[in-house]
Amino acid sequence: MNDADLERRSRLLSLKLRALVRDHLGLASDPEGSSEMFGLGAALVAADATWVLIDGDSSRSLGPVLAWTSRFGNPVHLLVEQESGLVARRAQFFHSAITVWHVDDRTLTPAVPVPHLPEAVAKPEHVAMMELISSSGADALIEHGIVVGEVRGLEMCRVVDDTYSGEARLEVGMGVNDREAFLMVHGELPKEQALRNVIEAVAIHREPDAMVHPFNQFGAERMHRWRAMQAPQSIGFTTLSPADPPVRRTNLKDAVPCVAVGKTSDGEAAVAVFVHGIDLDVVPFAVDAASRCGVNRAVIVARAKDITASMHKMAEWASIPVTFSTIPS
């Protein structure tokens, strides 16, 4: 969208929000309050409450909303059309006056927290290929039932079912398009040789002092996790292993926090949540991850410059203890 389209969209969202609040409160006219700019949608700040409407996907909206509305000191009403159950589940972990509403046309209903994703079990024939992945030099792991091979945190192969035969096969490459291209060009190579070639080409670009390259521009948070698992004591843990995030990854190129679980140096079970770049939603993500893993502590691992004052404030509001561990830039 260009600037004119964005401005028009913003005005329409503000009008929609006022109409939703008016109908919900049973008012004869528009509610009093000032319309405020909010990057994820629209906001209405009244004397006794702050109303926020999210435009589109709301799955990562809770953190930004908590950070932005804290300046007003009012109870917050968060209106969402998509992923309302996920947002409601995360909101219940905060000692903050926030109510999540599901928007259905012109009606607001209290959002019902959805349960965590069920534990997904990888197919035995997929698990059988983990030995090949490991012997080729990659790290074999299972995330939400999917067997993948990572090179210092960067996924470079995945076990899939053949579209036609239904048989399990190992595809090499970063993302579905890359895997298809690799198969077309190098399909004749034995899988172990293909993997070794890829690992050698990628690993040199995943070193801390490597020059900027596409292979180190993706999955930086997962590279942080890989390094921490080599030396858990560097972030205050004694043991550390990968864990499923509370939501499935849909795109390898998007920066999304990743999770590990282990024991801290004081013997407490905890999750470590790794993030790269400023992510205002990482605290809600972290407490959600802790809840899913059945532990009562979350440690957010990030560069010092990526940890903001608003993140510390949200950590104080959380019902699950949240602390921070810094890593080198």
Textual characterization of the structure:
The chain is of the alpha/beta class and 329 residues long. It has three domains: 3-110; 124-206, no CATH class; 220-327, 3-Layer(aba) Sandwich (Trna Endonuclease, Chain: A, domain 1). The protein is built from ten helices and 15 strands. It has helices at 3-25, 62-69, 84-91, 124-127, 130-135, 176-186, 191-203, 220-230, 282-293, 309-317; strands spanning 34-38, 41-45, 50-54, 76-80, 98-104, 107-110, 139-143, 146-151, 154-161, 168-172, 237-243, 258-264, 269-274, 298-303, 322-327. The strands form three sheets. It has a six-stranded mixed beta sheet with strand order 1-2-3-4-5-6, sandwiched between helices. A five-stranded mixed beta sheet has the order 11-12-13-14-15, sandwiched between helices. A hairpin with a 2-residue loop joins strand 8 and strand 9. The chain is globular. The protein starts with a helix and ends with a strand. 39% of the residues are buried. The mean pLDDT is 91.
